[in-house]
Input
Amino acid sequence: MIDIQKFRLTEAQIVVLGSHPQIIQSMLDYDFLAKRQQPSVVAIIATGRKQERYFWGETEVIIPVVSNLSLLREAKRKTITAVLNVQSARRVLSSTKQAIELLPQLQVVTIFAEQTPESHTLDLIELVADKNILITGPASVGLLVPGYLKLGAIGGTQHRQLSDADILDSGNTAVVSTSGGMVNELIHTVTGAGIGVSFAVALGGDRFPITSPAQAILLAEKDKQTKRIVYFGELGGSDEYEIAELLTSKKLTKELIVYIAGTVAELFEEPPQFGHAKAMAQTYDESATAKKKILKKAGAVVCETFADMRTFLEKRVEGERSPVKRTIGSRQRSMIVSHISGEKDETVRLLGKDLIETVEGNSVASLVLSMLLGQQVTSKKAIAFVDYVFRLLMDHGPYVSGALNTIVAARAGKDLVSSLSAGLLTIGPRFGGAINAAADGWLSGVAGEVSAQEFVESFARRGEVISGIGHKKYHIDLPDPRVKALVGFAGNSNGDRYLQFARSIEAITTTKKSNLILNVDGAIAAILLDILESEFDYDQQQLHELVEIEFFNALFVLSRSVGFTAHYLDQRRHDEGLLRLSPGDVRYIG
Ligand code: ACO
Ligand code: LMR
Output
């Protein structure tokens, strides 16, 4: 069983399984009020987004979101010491097991969900029996080690509650309860009596809490900073008999002050079921009265009323305590987050510097690539390549579908933006918008060490075309001069495994049909992958993320916008009026 002192010696790094913004914000507020240098929550495991925004004091911070714990880099996983599991009851077992498997430095887990299947709870009890991991719950509001760790809703979920609760500095009295609501009441009772809390734990009101009250009380016995324990119990179950045994066997030597709720149940003909699953006295021994008797006999201080606890504790005050008081001021949530640009001190900044300075410090290509990657780029090779691609892709004649649509719209009298949009809306999987899918294919093929033959056959089996391969005009006997120029430009000085793979695919596809050559989309995708890997040291996950956000298509869109705009202006300059096909242009099959 872990030692509470370990939480005071460790700067907690927490991952949250699922998302519960209110609880997470309260943990960050606690960190801030307790003067931590940075948030204890370092990642959230959830789907449908890549980040969540929270307040850090009065400012905002971003917490990364990944869809599965296994997607967190191993180096990050090795730093995680605590888990807050707010996932649904049916996912508690699998997600907690995965956390225990993937987080080698894990010290504590809080399981928030209620109605976790008892068989799952029993599995988790068995799973951690021989591990130095404290699990609170199911149905737990968490663990608080004042000044060091707030894991869960414990202590409150509003920053004003946290400021008022006098739990920012460490004390000498442990608070143990199965009830989440009562643990906060107990904290207030202890601090209200002028005593500090050494740690507080809410074990959860399910029939089988993974950590029992007796085990939690032994944690307090072992904790050198704890002088006494305050415990809230209730009717039902047999936890208090285990606690009494700790006292009689001298395994528990520290002062234990208890309140057992539920004597009112003894007024009923039939035993009533109270809120928590186990809060029902099926027999006399499970009644509040019986429990109070056994604990008193064993030497515990048994309070008849909850208020008696505070009265008793006030006699234990060892001198005036000057509670740490800190508050958080007003804060306003921003509408959007930009990593590209924004204002500071009335000045527009771009990529971290004054806009004019950034503009004057970058060429067009350097600025384009830096803005597309969201970071200031310095690689001369990458900048030169993007500059070349940007110029190369601007136009390929009015024949291509996108240019034609811009021309048709211009001659229909549409304005620039509408005509440009008509062209841009044509960019897609067959024309100009295949760079991203080609990058995805080359990335998967190389990462999966798939042979060129198997790669081609897998697409054929699925009846899919290979993005980056094929052209309406060019073929093996009339190669696309742009592809030749790109390959020559790349020079492949830093390794070209993606271009080699793309070429190996072309070698097979051109045996099937002569026009199934590596096209300009496929070539750009491959060379960009090689450059990002060699010049920026991007790993597979980072390259995959660029594919996911469609980074690779951006260059074609930006560059060909120049060409479409030129065609629009050209048509306006030499306006021939509305374009209409003649009957000979259409073969009517009617
Ligand atoms: N991979 C596998 N098979 C292909 C591919 C491909 N990339 N392209 C065409 N084929 C096959 C088709 O499946 C079809 O086979 P079938 O005769 O057995 O039915 C046959 O070749 C004819 O294909 P079509 O699409 O009808 O005609 P075309 O070959 O002229 O298509 C096109 C050219 C649209 C570019 C096609 O090759 C394609 O879709 N390629 C993938 C998308 C792509 O990379 N586009 C970028 C082009 S460059 C640019 O836009 C800047
Ligand atoms: C282009 O750059 O637009 C082309 O490769 C497509 C085409 O049909 O010429």
